[in-house]
Structure to design on (395 residues):
């Protein structure tokens, strides 16, 4: 479910959390190129939104917090305990400019401003509630909570991501009878995660049905309610296609992935276009239509964004040419795959590419070169903890 959750978060504009899940997926499944592609596109999206990190200037003024003052000396500690809390809290609030703080707190900024105004009322601050609690302590506790919330949001989400959420919320206020966009987004993210989990656990039919129901819901919503509506529609067609492929429904899977491709092209979504071409090629290869797979994957080549993606793409195309007994072209694609794998430093794809080259050379009766490449592949296989790969090469 990590990949689907990351894709959903990316489609909703929550690029940081998407990047977190792409990295988690990459650590768990380094063999899946799609996580690395996700990392690249999420990082690029973040840079496009906030610019180069070196250009970001944060206002930072020295502050002497209560804890650090405590550590200076015992005498100073005693003095600090006797100081009014409002002085300490006011020093802490200097850290953020009013404009930045307002962006971070949103509607809660008005509450903080009201509490700070109460601090100026000395008579009120000296009073107590019926339960005996000091009003000053309650006010300062409220300000402290809001400061913590402000700091939390600054760490968790940049301002541009919150602007995205606030825009969606503003658009939804006029439609009281409908769900708020933020609620819809959370519900969609949860359902997408469930769909992916079901498929991963082998419940392809259940995953497919859930994806089809969610697709109908999203198609009925407007773009105001679901920003990036068409990215999600394409993503669901892809999920349905993957589930159908798992159930052995090849023609249905091909149709679903072609719907994903059609949606991506219609709405100029290059990442979705690349994904759809990838999946269509896999379906063609599974049903033995190797030339159609080749044509599809060759169309994807200009969309490849990294050396790792090119490594597996060239390998898959070369494998199809080998199945068609075109060993010369297969060898050429195998060598291109190996070159890309070397650029990426990926041992596993170096292994796959080297084996492909060796197998093509066997068909070309270049046995000396084939033996050398099989020996190189065996060395690579020993670097990859896969006894099956070693045995396959030796056999």
């Amino acid at each position: 479910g990590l990949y689907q959750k990351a894709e959903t978060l990316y489609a909703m504009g929550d690029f940081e959390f998407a990047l977190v899940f792409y990295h988690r997926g990459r650590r768990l499944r380094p063999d899946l190129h799609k996580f690395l592609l996700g990392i690249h596109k999420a990082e690029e999206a973040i840079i496009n939104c906030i610019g180069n990190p070196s250009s970001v200037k944060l206002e930072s003024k020295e502050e002497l917090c209560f804890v650090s003052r405590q550590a200076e000396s015992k005498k100073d500690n005693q003095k600090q305990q006797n100081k009014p809390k409002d002085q300490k809290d006011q020093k802490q609030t200097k850290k953020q400019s009013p404009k930045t703080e307002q962006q971070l707190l949103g509607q809660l900024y008005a509450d903080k401003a009201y509490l700070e105004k109460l601090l100026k009322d000395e008579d009120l601050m000296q009073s107590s509630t019926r339960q005996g609690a000091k009003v000053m302590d309650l006010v300062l506790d409220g300000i402290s909570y809001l400061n913590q919330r402000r700091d939390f949001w600054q760490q968790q989400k940049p301002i541009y991501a919150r602007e995205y959420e606030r825009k969606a919320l503003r658009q939804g206020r006029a439609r009281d009878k409908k769900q708020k966009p933020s609620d819809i987004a959370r519900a969609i993210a949860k359902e997408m995660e469930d769909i992916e989990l079901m498929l991963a656990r082998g419940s392809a039919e259940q995953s497919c049905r859930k994806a089809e129901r969610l697709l109908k819901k999203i198609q009925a919503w407007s773009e105001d309610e679901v920003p990036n509506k068409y990215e999600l529609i394409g993503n669901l067609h892809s999920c349905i296609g993957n589930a159908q492929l798992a159930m052995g429904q090849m023609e249905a899977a091909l149709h679903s992935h072609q719907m994903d491709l059609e949606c991506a092209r219609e709405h100029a979504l290059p990442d979705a276009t690349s994904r759809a071409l990838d999946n269509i090629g896999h379906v063609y290869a599974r049903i033995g239509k190797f030339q159609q797979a080749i044509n599809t994957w060759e169309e994807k080549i200009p969309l490849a964004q990294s050396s790792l993606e090119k490594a597996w793409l060239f390998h898959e195309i070369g494998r199809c040419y080998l199945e068609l007994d075109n060993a010369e072209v297969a060898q050429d694609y195998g060598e291109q795959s190996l070159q890309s794998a070397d650029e990426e430093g990926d041992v596993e794809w170096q292994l796959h590419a080297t084996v492909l080259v060796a197998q093509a050379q066997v068909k070309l009766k270049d046995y000396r070169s084939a033996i050398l490449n099989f020996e190189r592949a065996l060395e690579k296989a020993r670097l990859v903890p896969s006894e099956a790969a070693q045995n396959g090469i030796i056999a």
